[in-house]
TrEMBL record:
Its EC number is 1.1.1.2. It comes from Streptomyces gancidicus BKS 13-15. SMART domains: PKS_ER. Residues 14-341 form the Enoyl reductase (ER) domain. PROSITE patterns: ADH_ZINC. Pfam families: ADH_N, ADH_zinc_N. Its cofactor is Zn(2+). This is alcohol dehydrogenase (NADP(+)). It comes from the Bacteria. Gene3D superfamilies: Medium-chain alcohol dehydrogenases, catalytic domain, NAD(P)-binding Rossmann-like Domain.
Amino acid sequence: MTTVAAYAAPAAKAPLERTTIERRAVREHDVLIDIKFAGICHSDIHQVREGWGEAIFPMVPGHEIAGVVSEVGPGVTRFKVGDRVGVGCMVDSCRECENCLAGKEQYCLQGQTPTYNGIGRDGEPTYGGYSEKVVVDENFVVRIPDGLALDVAAPLLCAGITLYSPLKRFGAGPGRKVAVLGMGGLGHMGVKIAHAMGAEVTVLSQSLRKKDDGLRLGADHYHATGDPKTFEELRGSFDLIVSTVSAPLDFGAYLSLLKTEGTLANVGAPEEPVSLNLFSLIGGGRSLAGSMIGGIAETQEMLDFCAEHGIGAEIELIAASEINEAYERVENSDVRYRFVIDTATI
Ligand code: NAP
Ligand code: ZN
Ligand code: ZN
């Protein structure tokens, strides 16, 4: 066991504060990672606030981890000391159900083990990336390509893969009109990735405040959803809409923006249920789909894709002492576009 410094919420809704946690000794297939950077995902905030239901405290959030391997177990074959690596939203799964065998560990039928706010298969609570070090089985660790700096790579481990996976699955590419709904941490990655895939990209944001950034990051068009004219103007326009919105939404209004048989893929995880008039689906033969992060192999594929296309996150690098303030700014849609903690400041 190693004692490491971390930032934790001691109880639901409490501010995060500096503390120490124990990391297990490296086992046969484990790697010890010196964490360099950890992104702040809106999911961290939902969970610290118990917005998704009862959670485990103390909670050390953080599932956008970038660092360097500092020790490997005797059975490790994929990594060596000094490798630049990442860890995302899960650190284990059953590895034998049909979804795990298909590389969709995020949908493990026995339940994947979340990087934090979970109980590992050894019965111990999991603690996330707002800490100095983490021990993870090598099968849940990915390689960060040399071309990507670790600070801008960290958010790819959740925000990047969460957008890459549905964009690929629903065919974002040349000749396809894709809208990204919400220009936050996930949304801005969606703009960059959909653009790199060759799609015609539209941002749908509450206002035009971030328009210049959206266009700079690769959007072809940018519209304010706060303006009712947007819904008239864009009716029937898109092959695919990816919603990253963290709050309940009028999905019916957005479904009307799809072409016939278009798809609205939702990745946002609001704390409240939404209601939907099903005529907005059956009318145009439209689909409403969901997507959660991506599998381990797909996460590696996404990192390689991002390195090839020179894509990192747009980040605001902060000290650990600024985490609580950063949470407030994320809740106010005032992040440009991902807060990343410099873990040397913990
Ligand atoms: P974020 O940085 O806060 O971005 C969310 C964006 O949603 C905001 O920037 C804002 O965009 C828009 N928004 C917020 N409140 C809104 C409202 N009331 N009405 C309309 N638009 C609103 O959060 P994030 O880290 O990208 O995460 C977004 C959501 O995805 C969270 O619920 C998170 O838990 C979830 N998530 C899901 C997965 C998954 O695997 N499915 C993975 C990670 C995160 P504008 O300012 O442009 O309007
Ligand atoms: Zn996340
Ligand atoms: Zn499984």
